[in-house]
């Protein structure tokens, strides 16, 4: 590893997290400090987690982790005391930098028990104002190779923080690929996904967080069923939060049997009656794989009690009717990316 120092903010003595270190002037111009991760040893460190660990706690501004092309295996945990991190893939496209792990809900832990759904995440983001660009997050847990696993939920990314941006990123998995959450039920955390690709089969975009998917591709994988090839969303938005998941100018694709994929079902964690899913899909293209009645019940919880709606969708999977709630023009004018993301601080990460 090359010895480039990380100066913690305010540490005029030059003592950083890795001992007495000195950042060269060029290392502060990305903007701010940065580290380079390279699996082949040509960077500062060889693993993503090692780079995160070197970022000073309480980091006050943008700190970039440049990631050279490669496949980086192992869990990555970004704690709440390390905000403003940027993961920037250095490849020509997001497929050249892959952050991946392969544990599932039912995978045994070394210390006993199993990982659980949250613990299965390849990447967990608890630091606010995180952003990622031009890379892939994956959980490649192999369901077919692990038939005895009791829980097959295998999360690629779990978000728990506010003001997160994912730009030109891919999220790969099967069940529970992308878990958009928050620190607690009373906290409304926001995430913005721009020109991203998300794939999976069962509830593969889920959680209580607020998320905008702008010009994204949402791809349903084939479970080889002629009747049910899964569910795209399983929002658990609290009733106090008017904004759950918004998909705008996006494409819903899938090479599965026509009419066999549901757009969503309402998740009530621990049977919480206040977890009322809120999901809007608007101005988007729906493939033929979408079920003509695209919202469905989750156990005893009826989809009709959730907050589901569509607006001006197109494509072979688009329709209207009693099973396809539609926004009015006035409602659509109020349910925009800006409204979902603004919060109380006027946040607007779009560009």
Kindly state the percentage of residues in helix: under 10%
Distance, first to last CA: 36 Å
Number of strands: 27
Broad CATH class: Mainly Beta
The helix count comes to 4
Second-tier CATH architecture? 3 Solenoid
Q: Which quaternary structure do these chains form?
A: single chain
Query: What is the domain total for the residues?
Result: 1
Label the structural class.
mainly beta
Widest sheet, order of strands: 3-4-7-10-13-16-19-22-25-27
Form type: globular
Poorly predicted runs are 1-29
Whole-number average pLDDT? Answer: 91
Overview of this structure, please?
There is one protein chain. This protein has one domain (60-342): Pectate Lyase C-like (3 Solenoid). The protein is globular, with a radius of gyration of 21 Å. The chain has a 10-stranded parallel β-sheet. The protein has an 8-stranded parallel β-sheet with strand order 5-8-11-14-17-20-23-26, with no helix packed on it. It contains 4 helices and 27 strands. It is mainly beta and 351 residues long. 45% of the residues are buried. The protein has helices at 48-54, 116-119, 329-334, 337-342, and strands spanning 15-16, 19-20, 34-37, 63-67, 70-73, 76-78, 85-89, 97-101, 123-125, 131-133, 136-139, 157-159, 164-167, 170-172, 178-180, 190-194, 197-200, 202-207, 210-214, 217-220, 231-235, 245-248, 251-254, 262-264, 278-282, 285-286, 307-311.
